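Bumping with the actual sequence this time:
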Amino acid sequence: MHAELTPVIAATTDWLLAAFPPRAGAWHAALARVQARQAVCVAAWLRYPTALDGELLILTGPGGSGRLDWLVGAEDRDEPWRTWVDEVVASWAACLLADVTLARDAVAALDEGDGLVPDMRRLCDPDAADGRATPLLRHPDLVGAVADLHRAELLARVGRPVAA
């Protein structure tokens, strides 16, 4: 992972959890955060695969959560961290959370032949506790509006056919 992606990963993870909150309780919150962070990490690594990509992101800025906030009806949009949200990364992460098979394909796309693919078990092989923790975040219909924003680009990136 490129250090440049850290603020984008943190902010985009926070945005997903604010937009699609986990069930109540510390255990559910922790499981939801791990799943969201894994999805955002995979999405960010696919979107910005080189250190130069990460540096250009920091130079130009990720764009913020404005359109995403409008899309999900978020009311409090003045927090400074929202400027670090990357719309494409959030959309791709929503796609991955809603489709385990796509998540597995995306993680496989990270493998550059060195066998050093990160462990993304909570994202790619969620158990019943993971599902209970994230009933909104993993529901294809509920995250659909966000996921649909940039789904075609993600499908192309992982080598899946894009429906016309």
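The tokens above came from a reply further down the thread. The mean pLDDT is 91.
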